[in-house]
# Entry
Amino acid sequence: MREILVINALNERDLLRDRIFQQIGKMRFVDYKKQCEERTAGMLMEEKAFCEKVKSDFQSFQDLIRNYDEIDAAIVASNATTIIKTKYGEYTVAAAIAQKQRLKVSSERENSRRTPLFDASRTIKGDFETEAIQLMQN
# Structure
């Protein structure tokens, strides 16, 4: 396992998230070809080459998700063990983040009727697997 600063891990996780969604947008799992033709109609590839490309793209997609999950788990572990001092006392980073969110939510509730807590794009783009399954089903 490699060691990196948490800020670098956060940046790398964000980069991986962007790469995952870019790959989701580019992946094509379905194509067709006529019996009399050698190439597929959409990708203009031979059937065997198309199948290999789909397998390769899917493996790359899975590797990106595995890397994302590993970095995310390391960030969570670091946040659970690193102690920081705040004006409210000593907390783990995870507890301080949770407290910050509670304070933010409570202050937003006072102004809540105007703005929603989470925008639709953030909630939709949190689950890579669901996004990929929806792409495959369409």
